[in-house]
Amino acid sequence: MTKLSVNINKIATLRNSRGGNVPNLLKVAHDIEDFGAEGITIHPRPDERHIKYQDARDLKYSVRTEFNIEGNPIKSFMDLVLETKPTQVTLVPDAVDAITSNAGWNTIKHQSFLQEVIQEFQRNNIRTSIFIDTDAKLIEAAAKTGTDRIELYTENFASEFDKGNKNAIKPYTEAAILAHKLGLGINAGHDLSLENIQFFKENIPNLAEVSIGHALIAESLYLGLENVVKMYLHRLQ
Q1: 50 in active site
Q2: Is there a catalytic annotation at residue 70?
């Protein structure tokens, strides 16, 4: 079954909006795991506008399932990952001022850089994943970096699916087939939701993990966090 990793950035955003520790990030992470999720994802950014670096350190001792840290591998991020040693690090080429991730890696242009970063993480027994678009040449170049997995950037699929264009899944299906042939594990994330997750799962062979945050937290405002986590798990079966 495809694993569900819940991104808790939005919980940190809500906490930070008032200061203090409400909602309690560690308790929410524990509750999400108790509700059945198989992983917790965070994406700390240099300005710490949602997840703080200290949150990553605290979660290191708290998360009981898979712990996934996403981010651009600048020095401060790499130091944090090497200190906390999560289950997985997902490399994302987001700019410092990006509101959210908006592109995958150019694995051709940045191949040598990614190789160096990935080797450092793998030496520390941290599984690596590269955030990437569906272009076949980029996936082939990703395989040459030595990464364990790729994470398909799914914003275009989600946007087109909302318009009724189910053919938008085809590049993702083809990308997943290619990645599997190249020996890469397949993750996916960005704008996946209760509306599109089952269709996506059914059309992506060998999908190991999805990372979902914004939609899941927004849906939980109406349906409740426990209900929504279980609804995702049901759709991923």
Answers
A1: no
A2: yes
